[in-house]
Amino acid sequence: MRIVLATHNEGKLKEFRAFMAPYGYEIVSLRDIGVGVVVPEEGDRFADIARQKARAIVQLVDVPVLADDSGLCVDALGGAPGVYSARYAGVGATDADNIQKLVDDVRATVGVPWDMDGERVWSRARFVCALALCTPHRCIDVVGTCDGAMTAHPRGTNGFGYDPVFYVPSLRCTCAQLTRAQKADISHRGAALRRLIARLDADAI
Hints:
By secondary structure, the chain is α+β, with helices and mostly antiparallel strands. The protein has a single domain (2-202), classed as Maf protein (Alpha-Beta Complex), CATH 3.90.950.10. The chain has five helices and eight strands, in the order E-H-E-H-E-H-E-E-E-E-E-H-H. Strands 1, 2, 3, 4, 5, 6, 7 and 8 form an eight-stranded mixed β-sheet that branches. Helix 4 (180-186) packs across helix 5 (188-202). It is globular. The N and C termini lie close together (11 Å).
């Protein structure tokens, strides 16, 4: 099955393609099909925004559309940056810009980091990924999470977004230090995709 992924984020595109290919799903980008639409993200829930994006794009194509909305929720900041994760430092902000603002904000809130089994962290945190796979007639919605902490010592060069500052206690490293296979096993996106595959196996869209 061919599925259009409603994103312009190359990092997400690579992850979705690598995960879905073994199950027989071909993931194509908006660029691949010549669609340059950027859907405004409005709402305060990941699931609502994912469905909004998928529904907007499915009106323009003749294949199912998969959209996600994902982000980092930091306990010390009351769940921020949340749905604003991609633009936390402003529209057009880079990953480095967003990370720096996050570090500045949590440092101002917490003061000093604390010890979590030998790792200095600012706060417990979680990644959340909501997926919506839509045709013109119906949608499938799933959510996946990954619990961890915001580390005081960013490190790693794999991944994208907030991966360098997200510490995974069970593996004693950040998401940016994981291989692609390791990340697929434990990540919020991997959890959401496994739930999506299970739904598709049980009830074809």
